[in-house]
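The instructor's notes for this session suggest beginning with a concrete chain rather than abstract definitions. Hand out the sequence below and ask the class to guess, before any prediction is shown, which regions might be ordered.
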Amino acid sequence: MPTKQELLSNFRDSIPAWRSASTLTRYPYIAGRFIDHAGAKSTYTKTDAMKFLNHLSHSGGKANYIRWAAFAIAAFYKSLELPVPFTKGELPSRPQESELVRPALTNPQVVELIRAVKSRGTSRMKAYLALSTVYGLRAIELASIRPEDISDDNIMIATAKHGVAGKQLIPAQIQKYVQPHNFKPCTTSALCDLFSNMQKLAEQKHKDKEGFHSIRRRLVRSLIDNGANPRYINLFMRWSSASRSGMMGVYSHPDESEYEAAYDNIFSKHPWLKEWR
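After discussion, reveal the predicted structure:
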């Protein structure tokens, strides 16, 4: 029976030298975690791979990290001359290295932003920051919002990265900031400038790559730390079915009652909703 070290050595040798530095380091690291989970052995099954991705998801792994893990495991299986454990339809889109290194704001930084914008910011700042801090919207998702996407107590969110588009409940705490605003499609560059201006308002020093995604990353981490249900986090963050539950979400389709349960659970565990009262 091969050892973990032998399996990883063989795997490292199989990765082409022209691959990026992050791939050359991340793939063996992920493979090591997989071996720890499934055991060191000469052959692995599709079930081994699916169980590991499911474990990553329920342990709080972010969608982009799970995408990395899926591709790393596929490469690891190839190094052992085993069939790739995922079909083309199950394999998520290739991970984006830029997203992995994007920094997360701290909880106090997000609270400072909310309080500064609430007291001194423009109505535009309040509307976009409210949506960002409550839903963790990406800049590209914020940029595409139109007036007709908001009706009564709901907002239609067109997700990026193959996520699940659909209506989201607008909690009472942010309705007065979101509903009256005349949203117009804009560029992500304009929103980057808006984010930077909000940081200036809060007297925060802007760091490279900080933006609305930095809020999204902190929101996910905080929901996990606050004990929110992992499946409800997946639904609320609108991750693609291929990313939910370590790819098991491909075969599960939540109904309306489950979305309602997700709202109840997430809003009760939300780190910043009370700041918008």
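Then share the key points. The longest helix spans residues 21-38. The beta strands are 150-151, 154-157, 166-169.
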